[in-house]
Amino acid sequence: APYALAYPHIELTLTDIQDNAIARRAFGPGEYLAPGEDEQRGFPANREASIKLHLNTTDLKPAGYRLFLFYLQ
Known about the structure:
3 strands
């Protein structure tokens, strides 16, 4: 967007080989922003973001995933 946006929450759903949900979790901006990034400033205009989430899925054996971005009101 040509203007700054608030950082969204991210819902990650891990799925099995039949696309059934096996785990789901929502992450707030404070959980995925890099150290030093200011959540209050928002997502800068005309920029891309790279996000890393470290997950231990050893017991789940996921085959796929879905991402859903949302804002709390």
